[in-house]
Amino acid sequence: MTLIMGVQVCSRYMFNNSLSWSEEVTRYLFIWSGFISISYCTKKCISIKIEQFVEAFPKKGRAIFKIINHTIELIFFFYLMPFSILYLKSSIESGQVSPACGIPMYLVQSAPLIGFSLAIIRIIQRWIIEFKICREG
User: Fold this and answer.
1) Is 29 in a helix, a strand, or coil?
2) pLDDT at 12 (0 to 100)
């Protein structure tokens, strides 16, 4: 993304010629990176929470807190899944393409569905890890 925008800036100011596709591609890459990062943050247990509060509990208490947190996250992503499916379905049915690149918009609009699906998989993985910690005690 940085390279594409760097080329765009150089092209615009050095050659007085703007690349028509660069901003669009960068925007779509940014969208994808945002939705893929949801799964990464879930894998690393990086979410908005009060870390000092969680760390005050013993190991088993932290595991229980994390199980509750993961359950809430799982419910949230399962709630969002139907909306992302409808969003993608409407994009496929419309046959819309991006103006500058001609990229089918369903490729861009599939990012929420894929991002949420990967997050659900990661949450289930974290859930299993925390259950094992909870059992070991």
Assistant:
1) helix
2) 84
DSSP letters, 32-88, are HHHHHHHHHHHHTT--SS-HHHHHTS-HHHHHHHHHHHHHHHHHHHHHHHHHHHHHH
Q: What pLDDT is attached to residue 137?
A: 65
Give the mean model confidence (pLDDT) for residues 21-40.
Answer: 94
pLDDT of residue 37: 96
Helix, strand, or coil here: 18? coil
Q: How confident is the model at residue 134 (pLDDT cuts 50, 70, 90)?
A: confident
Residues 6+ apart with CB under 8 A from 27: none
pTM: 0.84
- Name residues whose C-beta falls within 8 Å of residue 68's C-beta, 6 or more positions apart in sequence: none
Distances, alpha carbon 24 to alpha carbons 72, 96, 106, in Å = 35, 15, 15
Per-domain boundaries in the chain: 2-136
Closest CA to 67 of 8, 6, 128, 1: 128
Non-local (6+) Cβ contacts of 84 within 8 A are 112, 113, 116
